[in-house]
């Protein structure tokens, strides 16, 4: 028995399914990391792989960046958590508020789930309305309202003109489902027609400008502008989930559009490799959290919020991720998508690639999808996706289980060439299987 098999047998005794998060499950067993260096990860069997998963898009500088290790090490010496505020959270908040024009105030939390949840609750507290709208198929973490219809499928998604609010978790209350209005992605007319059936009812419209589960397809300008117009006229807030996409531009993917959102949920890379989340946006909206107010509309706390270790790591990571670093990484992303598209053509395998900035996703369809329903992975596509992932993994490249990748600043053109070469071999192998 290998060390991984042995560990997994033990894990099965104490962890449901033998894992602490579903994303690391692999059959017949997960792999166990022992060391990460830059863009490389070594597993417990001693095998080294190029890491294009980067802990689900969260490591912008790869593993163990020396400056982040030093900043965390220094804080570690001085204590890890206090019933005090710390200087580093103020310095980091100043950096973030300078970074993106829509961030007038920010509050740090512990995960992307908590960031999205807090945005929705802040929008409710600000507007006094209960309902929210979200995009079919978009993943925003596991808060009840945010997860509605994330896993809708052809059997339950209903007519596109009024997509159904489907639960993800058994036991989700009907009240939650009734309070979530589901809209299609990148279809401004249909989305606005659906929203217009709920005038004055919605606290916010929650949008990820390039939702992973929908296919890592950037939202069009027309779509975002239509949502911005509708929310402004209706008095609802526009909330962006930039937990993944903030890496796409120095100010976040919101700079792709003419008008900024009212609130933004952040997470993943802004923790510099440690668990984090944040909500940021308009000062008057963020004021619902203000504990100095006569009546606090959204009392909010969290034992580890703005934890100094996380703040030290995050601040260092974001200082390093300056405009030049963003531009260099995005150029690597362009190169990766171009070379993957060339590998698809060269192999003759019917696949396509989407994404923007430092993100890509491979689809087992000859035409790149434009909507969740087109990007939906049926069992046949799932099998082919798994075959490509397995090929890449066996040949030393680790991708995200949707056949997506998130690059890190630790990479160079050489690693992108390796990625494309391995994928070319994968497409060829798939073609031979027929
Ligand atoms: C777009 C988006 N929002 C929110 C979340 C939830 O973040 P976390 O896993 O930190 O709770 C994720 C996680 O993958 C995400 O991709």
Topology:
Layout: H1 3-14, E1 33-37, E2 40-43, E3 48-51, H2 54-57, H3 66-78, H4 87-99, E4 105-109, H5 112-127, E5 131-135, H6 144-147, H7 174-178, E6 180-183, H8 188-195, E7 202-207, H9 221-234, E8 237-241, E9 263-267, E10 277-281, H10 283-286, H11 308-320, H12 323-347, E11 352-354, E12 359-363, H13 372-375, H14 379-394, E13 397-398, E14 404-406, H15 413-433
Helix pairs in contact: 3-11, 4-11, 8-9, 12-15, 14-15
This protein binds pyridoxal-5'-phosphate (PLP).
Pyridoxal-5'-phosphate binds at residues 56, 111-113, 116, 139-141, 208, 212, 241, 243-244, 267.
Nutshell version of this structure?
This protein is an alpha/beta fold and 434 residues long. The protein has 15 helices and 14 strands.
Folded structure, characterized:
The chain has helices at residues 3-14, 54-57, 66-78, 87-99, 112-127, 144-147, 174-178, 188-195, 221-234, 283-286, 308-320, 323-347, 372-375, 379-394, 413-433, and strands spanning 33-37, 40-43, 48-51, 105-109, 131-135, 180-183, 202-207, 237-241, 263-267, 277-281, 352-354, 359-363, 397-398, 404-406. By secondary structure, it is an alpha/beta fold. The longest helix is centred in the last third of the chain and has 25 residues, at 323-347. The model has no long low-confidence stretch (mean pLDDT 97). Bound molecules: pyridoxal-5'-phosphate. Pyridoxal-5'-phosphate is lined by residues 56, 111-113, 116, 139-141, 208, 212, 241, 243-244, 267.
């Amino acid at each position: 028995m290998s060390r991984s098999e042995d560990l997994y047998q033990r894990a099965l005794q104490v962890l449901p399914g033998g894992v602490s998060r579903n994303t690391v499950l692999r059959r017949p067993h997960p792999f166990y990391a022992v060391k990460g260096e830059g863009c490389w990860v070594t597993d417990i069997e001693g095998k080294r792989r190029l890491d294009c998963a980067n802990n689900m898009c969260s490591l912008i500088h790869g593993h163990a960046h020396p400056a982040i290790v030093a900043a965390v090490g220094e804080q570690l010496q001085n204590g890890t958590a206090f019933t005090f505020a710390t200087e580093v959270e103020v310095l980091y908040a100043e950096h973030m508020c300078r970074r993106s024009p829509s961030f007038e105030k920010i509050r740090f939390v512990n995960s992307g789930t908590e960031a999205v949840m807090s945005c929705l609750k802040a929008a409710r507290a600000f507007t006094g309305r209960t309902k929210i709208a979200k995009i079919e198929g978009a993943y925003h973490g596991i808060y009840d309202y945010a997860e509605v219809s994330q896993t809708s499928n052809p059997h339950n998604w209903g007519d596109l003109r009024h997509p159904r609010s489907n639960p993800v978790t058994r036991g989700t209350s009907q009240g939650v489902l009734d309070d979530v209005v589901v809209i299609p992605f990148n279809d401004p007319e249909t989305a606005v027609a659906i929203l217009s059936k709920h005038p004055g009812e919605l606290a916010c419209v929650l949008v990820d400008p390039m939702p992973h589960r929908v296919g890592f397809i950037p939202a069009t300008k027309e779509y975002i502008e239509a949502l911005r117009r509708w929310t402004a006229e209706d008095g609802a807030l526009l909330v962006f989930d930039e937990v993944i996409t903030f890496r796409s531009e120095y100010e976040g993917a919101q700079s792709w559009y003419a008008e900024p959102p009212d609130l933004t949920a952040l997470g993943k890379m802004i923790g510099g490799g440690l668990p984090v989340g944040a909500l940021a946006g308009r000062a008057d909206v963020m004021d619902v959290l203000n504990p100095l107010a006569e009546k606090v509309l959204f009392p909010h706390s969290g034992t580890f919020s703005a934890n100094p270790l996380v703040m030290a790591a995050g601040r260092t990571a974001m200082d390093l991720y300056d405009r030049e670093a963003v531009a260099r990484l995005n150029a690597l992303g362009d190169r990766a998508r171009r070379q993957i598209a060339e590998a698809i053509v060269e192999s003759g395998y019917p696949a396509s690639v989407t994404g923007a900035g430092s993100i890509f996703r491979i689809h087992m369809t000859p035409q790149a999808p434009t909507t969740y329903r087109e990007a939906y992975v049926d069992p046949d596509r799932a099998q082919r996706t798994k075959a490509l992932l397995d090929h890449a993994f066996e040949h030393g490249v680790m991708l995200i289980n949707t056949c997506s990748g998130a690059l890190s600043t630790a990479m160079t053109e050489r690693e992108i060439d390796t990625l494309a070469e391995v994928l070319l071999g994968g497409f060829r192998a798939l073609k031979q299987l027929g």
